[in-house]
Fold this sequence. Notes:
There is one protein chain. By secondary structure, the protein is an alpha/beta fold. It has a single domain, classed as NAD(P)-binding Rossmann-like Domain (Rossmann fold, 3-Layer(aba) Sandwich). The chain is about 45% helix and about 20% strand. It contains 8 helices and 7 strands; from the N terminus they run βαβαβαβαβαβααβα. It has a 7-stranded parallel beta sheet with strand order 3-2-1-4-5-6-7, with helices on both faces. Helix 1 packs across helix 7, helix 3 packs parallel to helix 4 and helix 4 runs parallel beside helix 5. It is globular and about 50 Å long. The termini are far apart. The model has no long low-confidence stretch (mean pLDDT about 95). Bound molecules: NADP nicotinamide-adenine-dinucleotide phosphate. NADP nicotinamide-adenine-dinucleotide phosphate binds near residues 11 and 56.
Amino acid sequence: MTERVVIVGGTSGIGLAAAVRLAASGREVVVTGRTPERLERAVKEIGERGSGAVADARDPEAMCDLFAGLGRVDHVVINVSGRKGAGPFRSLSPDELRRALDDKLVAQVVAAQAALPVLRRDGSLTFVAAASANSAMAEVAGLAAVNGAIQSMIPGLAVELAPVRVNAVSPGVIDTEWWDWLGDDRQGALDAFASATTVGRVGTPADVANAIAYLIETGYATGTVLTVDGGVRLKPRLA
Ligand SMILES: NC(=O)c1ccc[n+]([C@@H]2O[C@H](COP(=O)([O-])OP(=O)(O)OC[C@H]3O[C@@H](n4cnc5c(N)ncnc54)[C@H](OP(=O)(O)O)[C@@H]3O)[C@@H](O)[C@H]2O)c1
């Protein structure tokens, strides 16, 4: 039977690349997002195995309706996040931190809970965290807290929800729309990040999509947080 994958937050960047990768390997792929125009564009790009639904992952009722309407699902990739949490610790306001937690940690938990009733007994959940969780970098404490919370859930959830497999990918800097808020400084920032890696470049959405596909396709992988960061965590030791 053709496998069905849902990508929560799959209309651009890493989520869309994962959708394209998983559809190319013969799966039916359902992507979600909040913006109808982006959703329509994404479904077109995925091709005949793609479909989509507009739903805000922070809304438990919307997520439960979405999954209940789909019926059986084999794998779920939970990719959503907002843009909050970066910047100097001294000026990280409680409101900004709460928003960052709501937009990513809470949204990802809500999506995973809504998926469970229809997820195949030995299917998989793959969360998308971020390598900021473990990086010794200034001005990422808020992001690190949010992504560290997601990563720290993985081993315990893999035990609690077994035989469902539970994993996460932890990307370094990936060239997606996420960075557009930098405006004219975008390219300079990405170049600086590239020089901080051992591979000499920032990541592509396809790099992370391959890691997501590996976790979905490897029936022996569970409780794993897979880092895909171009070696950025190694560089300070080499300098
Ligand atoms: N890019 C990087 O350098 C990087 C590094 C580490 C980790 N990550 C993580 O990778 C994941 C994907 O990021 P990306 O760079 O691919 O970003 P992106 O291009 O902005 O993609 C985010 C996707 O999630 C959707 N989305 C956001 N909030 C949503 C919500 N509440 N409900 C439903 N859909 C929602 C977006 O569509 P709508 O806005 O239309 O809803 C879009 O489809 C995120 O978790 C991000 O934190 C990215």
